[in-house]
Write a structure and sequence with these properties.
Elements lengths: L1 E10 L2 E11 L3 E5 L6 H7 L8 E6 L2 E2 L4 H7 E4 L12 H11 L7 H11 L15 H13 L5 E5 L7 H13 L5 E5 L3 H5 L3 E6 L2 E6 L1 H10 L3
Parallel strand pairs: 3-8, 3-9, 6-7, 7-8
Antiparallel strand pairs: 1-2, 1-4, 4-5, 9-10
Length: about 230
């Protein structure tokens, strides 16, 4: 369950989020809105990347403001730019780093890393320089690095923005059905992806302005630009 009560975020005296109050029990949640609407800031409050200025936000029973460390353990975050998350020279080493953080014994890392990479279609890329991967392969590697830690909640901030159609669909399918997480929050401009979620919420100028069936929320959003 994700809950926000009077959630507000200021930056340099400017309100980025204002009075967001909502309960989200659904498994897959789309967050939509124009650039600068506050949707990514909302997503970043869910694991403590952004601290609330006012109000509160709770994820998986954790008050993120008072216990950000537990929130980061429970919430895996996928950025739109996978290079921000790929820290090691090769995919095998990068997944190994995540597995090590998840408590896998050092002796088991090489085999587990190849198993995890194979599950994401990267089994033959373990020793390839990470910089030489395609954009889609990098995003798959970044997602694999998030999921090997078995987070209870996954938050993906515009995960398909830089991908071609095939890779965008693959990432979308994995997020919607293949994470094993209790909840998945997807911040996206891809309205077809948003419509596949269980619920959609929309932000405008830092405020939550719509919530409900994704088809209805998307249709209302489209009418503003018709």
């Amino acid at each position: 369950m994700i809950r926000a009560a009077g959630l507000g975020v200021d930056a340099d005296g400017v309100g980025i989020l204002d009075d967001v109050t909502i309960e989200l029990p659904q498994r897959t949640i789309a967050v939509i809105g124009a650039n600068g609407s506050g949707k990514s800031t909302f997503a970043r409050t869910l694991n403590g990347l952004v601290r609330p200025t006012r109000g509160s936000v709770e994820v998986a029973g954790i008050d993120v403001g008072s216990d950000p460390r537990s929130a980061r353990d429970a919430v895996g975050f996928l950025f739109s730019q996978p290079d921000a998350q790929i820290l090691m020279p090769t995919p095998g080493e990068d997944i190994g780093l995540s597995l090590r953080a998840a408590g896998v014994a050092r002796r088991d890392l090489p085999e587990r890393a190849r198993e995890e990479l194979a599950a994401f279609g990267l089994g033959d890329r373990a020793d390839q320089p990470a910089y030489s991967l395609s954009g889609g392969q990098k995003q798959l590697l970044a997602l694999a690095g998030v999921l090997v830690r078995r987070p209870r909640v996954v938050v993906a901030d515009e995960p398909t923005t830089l991908l071609d159609l095939g890779n965008a669909r693959r990432i979308a399918d994995l997020l919607l059905t293949g994470t094993g997480a209790e909840q998945v929050v997807i911040v996206t401009h891809d309205l077809e992806l948003a419509a596949r979620c269980d619920v959609a919420i929309r932000f405008d100028d830092g405020r939550l302005v719509d919530e409900g069936d994704p088809r209805d929320v998307v249709a209302s959003y489209r009418t503003e630009f018709a």
